[in-house]
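Hi there,

I know you've been waiting on this one. I reran it after we fixed the sequence typo, so this is the corrected version. Both the input and the resulting structure follow.
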Amino acid sequence: MENHLLISVIIPVYNCDRYLAEAIESVLVQTYQPREIIVVDDGSTDNSAEVAKRFAPSVRYYSQSQSGAGAARNYGTELAQGSFFAFLDADDFWVKDKLTCQMQVFESEPDIDIVFGHVQQFHSPELDESIKNKIYCPPELMAGYHPGTMLLKREAFLRVGKFETNLQMGEFISWYARATELGLREKMLPGLLMSRRLHETNLSIRQREARTDYVRLIKASLDRRRAASLPEKNSSFS
């Protein structure tokens, strides 16, 4: 595999000006070059636009009316020019050799479609102790089946299709279920690739109420698997 293949990094942001710069900087210092960085602003009302534009021309900034993270990621893929797609939430950040480690897998195992890695969760430093005590933070590294650890081939993403936009949460779970059903080949790296920030906004009441979406996603996946296992009906008319 040629070592100059372009990676398109897509960062959706919604009212995350406090953390966005750290996310962008974690991409800029990646040991793998080249990469393009696309920030898609999902209708922010804070200073997220100003933060992103400070990094021009290294960062390309776009905006849309508020439509959700799935729609923002989809818009980013339409703008992307790379042979590989990576996604990073605006409140998280990568270790500096994240992309290098993953591209080494694609070089040594060209049949792989998706590479994941492990995540370390942490309490955002500005939280006071009373808030930290309400948000459980697992101390151990965790396998990161998460858009922020994923690097995948462009054609693999297009084969699966875009993220769903009618869900309050769980659009990645739905996407990954479809990828699994299609038999995409994946690999989980054992090392840390991403730090995931825990703060008040990403564990809001609104998201907890949206957990019914997960039930819908599981049922939809089971229905697709069940349909695929049924024998084809004769389509001729008697």
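Quick highlight: The beta strands are 7-13, 35-42, 59-64, 84-87, 93-94, 114-123, 142-144, 151-153, 186-198.

Best,
R. S.
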